[in-house]
Amino acid sequence: MRSAKHIALCAAALLVMLLAGSQVTRAVTCMATELAPCAPAISSSSPPSELCCSKIKEQQPCLCGYLKNPSLRGYVTSPNAKKVATTCGVPVPKC
């Protein structure tokens, strides 16, 4: 009986660790510099690269924060930036 409780406790601890680990891997560090691969597409009419789309999708949770930053707002709200986001399948945030 004691062995079964011990195994159940270990299994529960393992489950908690796995769930906590999955939460950590989903956390995004908001760094506008991560969007540097999108600069050519935002500053011209060229299509976004796969790396750009990957970075925009990765940084999507941060876009509202970028909109609130006066230094970044112009880049995020520019027509080309919206076009790049749409092309990459990332909805333009309304914050």
UniProtKB/TrEMBL annotation:
<protein>
    <submittedName>
        <fullName>Bifunctional inhibitor/plant lipid transfer protein/seed storage helical domain-containing protein</fullName>
    </submittedName>
</protein>
<keyword id="KW-0813">Transport</keyword>
<dbReference type="InterPro" id="IPR036312">
    <property type="entry name" value="Bifun_inhib/LTP/seed_sf"/>
</dbReference>
<feature type="signal peptide">
    <location>
        <begin position="1"/>
        <end position="27"/>
    </location>
</feature>
<keyword id="KW-0732">Signal</keyword>
<keyword id="KW-0446">Lipid-binding</keyword>
<dbReference type="InterPro" id="IPR033872">
    <property type="entry name" value="nsLTP2"/>
</dbReference>
<dbReference type="GO" id="GO:0006869">
    <property type="term" value="P:lipid transport"/>
</dbReference>
<dbReference type="GO" id="GO:0008289">
    <property type="term" value="F:lipid binding"/>
</dbReference>
<dbReference type="InterPro" id="IPR016140">
    <property type="entry name" value="Bifunc_inhib/LTP/seed_store"/>
</dbReference>
<dbReference type="Pfam" id="PF00234">
    <property type="entry name" value="Tryp_alpha_amyl"/>
</dbReference>
<feature type="domain" description="Bifunctional inhibitor/plant lipid transfer protein/seed storage helical">
    <location>
        <begin position="30"/>
        <end position="95"/>
    </location>
</feature>
